[in-house]
Amino acid sequence: MVDDEDLRRAAELLRAGRLVAFPTETVYGLGANALDAEAVGRIFAAKGRPATSPLIVHVDSVEMVRSLVTEWPASADALAAQFWPGPLTLVLPKTTLVPDRATAGLGTVGLRIPAHPVALALIREAGIPVAAPSANRFTELSPTTAAHVREALGDRVDLILDGGPCTVGIESTVLSLAGGVPRLLRPGMITQAQIESIIGPVALPAAFHGVHAAPGMHPQHYQPKTPLVLGTPRTKGRGAYLWWSESRPSASSVQMPSDPSAYAAALYETLHRLDVEGWDYIAVEPVPLSIEWTGIRDRLNRAARR
Ligand code: AMP
Ligand code: MG
């Protein structure tokens, strides 16, 4: 676990332009000083991430946000009051303080206050906004433990803060408030209905236009190394079955929670474990169509091999 000395060292590294992996409530983040273009460049290099994918900037307060955006509409204020700290990223027009490299040249920046004591303490101690995508290699599974980060990035990262397993377990909901109708760019555990109850109608993402429009919407993302198939596979071989309902296809099925929050919290940890076990495929029972499952359904669809 993390003590004050770890936090001081981590904050010092961030201020010096180095990379620190840290826990958030969603997944582990690979952090760098969001105001330092060179530091931000190190994130892309460590992840093997295309420079066309914007990063989420983590802050500790709405005050910190205000120096980074040119607009802070009433809708943002209302959503922040309801959901921050928490797994909701708001996309707003950025100031020149945010380097173009952090936002892949976009005029907007994605921001959130994470609901994790270590993440908050780190940002506070460093005194700077922290750009942090998930701490994994590009297109691979997101990490929900410090061990996952170590396996994926090793010494590509200067320090890993171990805050135990992530409690939400999938990436944040991303909502654009940059012009026109608010638009949901990536579903997560904060649902469209929850957002609409605060600010009214929200548009769904335009049809997928490529990696550049919204990188989390890249069709191949969140993939385990083992081929993942939705439903019962026709192929032969040794398969692991991830089943949430009672009707299990095999005695050796992995029982997943039937509650969406518990399911999300367990999902990546389970996929990481099955990857290590070395199955021929991972078969996943399709999840319910109700709105609480939308974020999970999205990740499973992207994790599945086509
Ligand atoms: P990751 O950090 O790997 O979880 O992915 C970053 C996510 O943030 C992507 O899914 C994008 O949809 C979203 N994002 C961050 N900044 C922006 C932005 N300026 N415009 C649109 N989406 C953004
Ligand atoms: Mg990611």
List key phrases describing it.
DHBP synthase, binds magnesium ion
The CATH superfamily name of the largest domain is DHBP synthase
Low-confidence stretches: 208-213
Biggest sheet, open or closed, and with what strands and sense? Answer: 9 strands, mixed
CATH fold descriptor of the largest domain: DHBP synthase
> Main sheet: which strands, in order across?
7-1-2-6-3-5-4-8-9
Quaternary status: single chain
**Briefly, what CATH class of the largest domain?**
Alpha Beta
Walk me through what this model shows.
The chain has 306 residues and is α/β, with parallel strands linked by helices. It has 2 domains: 4-199, DHBP synthase (Alpha-Beta Complex), CATH 3.90.870.10; 228-304, no CATH class. Helices cover 30% and strands 16% of the residues. It contains 9 helices and 13 strands. It has a 9-stranded mixed beta sheet, sandwiched between helices. A 4-stranded parallel beta sheet has the order 10-13-11-12, covered by helices on one side. Helix 1 packs across helix 5. The longest helix is centred in the last third of the chain and has 18 residues, at 260-277. It is globular, with a radius of gyration of 19 Å. The N and C termini lie far apart (39 Å). The structure holds adenosine monophosphate (AMP) and magnesium ion.
